[in-house]
Amino acid sequence: MVEETEKKNENEKRSKRKLGGSAIGAILVLIIALVVTFYYTQNGKRCPCFQDSRKYTGIVEDCCCDYETVDSINGAVLHPLLQELVATPFFRYFKVKLWCDCPFWPDDGMCKLRDCSVCECSENEFPELFRKPQLGLPADDLKCQEGKPEAAVDRTLDSKVFRGWIEVDNPWTNDDETDNGEMTYVNLLLNPERYTGYSGPSARRIWDAIYSENCPKYASGEICQEKKVLYKLISGLHSSISIHIAADYLLDETKNLWGPYPELMYDRVLQYPDRVRNLYFTFLFVLRAVTKAKDYLEQAEYNTGNPEEDLKAQSLMRQLLYDSKLQAACPVPFDEAKLWKGQSGPELKQQIQKQFRNISAIMDCVGCEKCRLWGKLQVLGLGTALKILFSVDGQYSHDKHLQLQRNEVIALVNLLNRLLESVRLVQEVSPTFEKTMEGLSPQRAAKSIHSLIRLWKTVVGERLRQLPL
Ligand SMILES: Cc1cc2nc3c(=O)[nH]c(=O)nc-3n(C[C@H](O)[C@H](O)[C@H](O)COP(=O)(O)OP(=O)(O)OC[C@H]3O[C@@H](n4cnc5c(N)ncnc54)[C@H](O)[C@@H]3O)c2cc1C
Q1: d(Cα 419, Cα 421) in Å, to the nearest integer?
Q2: Is any ligand 1 atom within 6 A of the Cβ of residue 245?
Q3: Which residue of 21, 119, 235, 385 is most buried, as measured by CB atoms within 10 A?
Q4: Distance of CA 15 to the CA centre of its chain
């Protein structure tokens, strides 16, 4: 009887141990499953949901062309053509009023002094042509641009001033384009858009004024297409500016070492899918304007007094406008016809035009000369695209009525090139970041494994100790 009871107790103990063993097994399986799930969800390449949220595929929102097509036509057609086109004499000289008369906050310390906003590093550096009295250049002073020489514009010219284009004011922009009094010519190739050191409250104030007063970010349910378009154009331009800053950054001031700074690109643009999407949108919008003004741009005279180079500009422009691959892949990059519909259309157009003119006026408040140069050029480029696509009262609805200034065409084409370069940089840098993140994931996973083990030791280990082994 005693033997039987002992056997029974022994069997009970065994089955308890068995139960304990299978519970441990189940917990271990659970932990492994948790670790594997955690690792795979951290690893972008392996998790389908993660991949979807990072990759840009399908139709660019509100456009008629998809991301893949944009990337492929850029590489195959547009990039090589535009790179050559913007280097021709016609497209490399831009007329601009550089000194600021900020109409909004005259007390801004960054640009109070007229001399500071237009000064150059050394008077002797500039050719005779550049010191012509009508250009109105003041004596140069090294103290300008908050002491940052990289922010100053190099105004060296190596060609004649252009002639023969009609001067008409653009209703979308603030500057009176016909007033040549305070305008000067700048060689864009000598003044690349890149890091200048302009930041802090002054730069922040500009972007704040642009977004908060003139094109606030629309709510997710916003149905007014036109308001969305204005915000997306500015946000896309902002992304492009940030990308160019990161692409050509002063990495080491003491060694004057310049180069790409991909982390900055990631911090400012790539980590925000909306900003990337808005960049693609702005690019397609401007591309549509260029293709819509095809007849005008084809007939325009790209005359600088250098027959060989001018012929080249004309030929490159034709290639751009009539490229069969581009026409087949993306015939209408953006459909402007769907805007300004309904009764409130004309009123809305006036309102948006006023807002854009304000944005254009804000460019005079940019407290860094080179940033102001590129800000003004690109805003004029956008204003030109808006003028081509949406005239004030419909008079530009047919190409034959369109009148563009030479400077508008220069701004439009240079803007297209800037946006295209940004899109290409996004295309190139994005996968590297995906890889970097992929590389980091195992570390994160390892960290999480360690924390899981710790958890396992404290919580699960405690239970194991309680099991009757
Ligand atoms: C017209 C203009 C031209 C400039 N050109 C240059 C230049 O050539 N070189 C140079 O070094 N600096 C330039 N700057 C300064 C530069 O744009 C930044 O302001 C500066 O580098 C400081 O950057 P930040 O990180 O504070 O953010 P900022 O770029 O100043 O952005 C301010 C805020 O705007 C929002 N934001 C940022 N990007 C977007 C976007 N794409 N869409 C929507 N919202 C966004 C964010 O909330 C962000 O905090 C320019 C500024 C202006 C206004």
Answers
A1: 5
A2: yes
A3: 385
A4: 67
